[in-house]
């Protein structure tokens, strides 16, 4: 029957796990946008989303081909997808009793194909999906299916790395600074320790953790400081 998806049996634990990522409402990030772009290209789909299923909404961390930031959870295809560890493929939503009367089918974006791949954490909490949508009924090839599974796994890897980085910074704040803050110079970005001594960020991090750093030059700095080299690199590409 058409209607909103039931809540997972572990909904309370799932929402608690979701909150640990501190991802809801965060700004766009290139690493996530690259994945939705690849998903849309690989599946020849006009819409691709990284959808995070919150308490009463689905919020889009990254999106291709869609302007809205979120939709109600009651309308969400992704809320159905997170009920199972397996991907959910709907080849034509108009002929699926769960979705044929859904506002996202009857109105914009007029979903026909929906292919959702759950974002499952290492503790088996499914917090959202990587999905592609088309306004035409169709299916995915076996190759597209396998690539989407791998891209969904990569989204989870990025979320885990983000979570660990935030946890590490929180730990630094608790151990080395009062009131949960690191004091950094507004100009050179050095960090002041509890004795009032200033240190380069890399030095501070290595001194108080097991982290090591390597160095490179980002594209914008390369163009600013080494324009000739940047020009040569573009010619090679």
Structural notes for this entry:
The protein is an alpha+beta fold and 237 residues long. It is built from eight helices and nine strands. It has helices at residues 11-21, 30-43, 78-81, 103-106, 142-176, 201-207, 219-225, 227-236, and strands at 47-53, 57-64, 70-72, 88-90, 113-120, 126-134, 183-184, 191-192, 198-199. The longest helix is centred in the last third of the chain and has 35 residues, at 142-176. The termini are far apart.
Helix and strand topology:
Layout: H1 11-21, H2 30-43, E1 47-53, E2 57-64, E3 70-72, H3 78-81, E4 88-90, H4 103-106, E5 113-120, E6 126-134, H5 142-176, E7 183-184, E8 191-192, E9 198-199, H6 201-207, H7 219-225, H8 227-236
Antiparallel strand pairs: 1-2, 1-6, 2-3, 4-5, 5-6, 7-8, 8-9
Helix pairs in contact: 2-5, 7-8
Task: Extract low-pLDDT stretches.
Answer: none
- Tally of extended strands? 9
Strand content: 15-25%
The portion of residues assigned to helices is 25-40%
Keyword list:
237 residues, 2 domains, six-stranded antiparallel β-sheet, 8 helices
Task: Give the gist of this structure.
By secondary structure, the chain is of the alpha+beta class. It has 8 helices and 9 strands. The chain is globular and about 65 Å long.
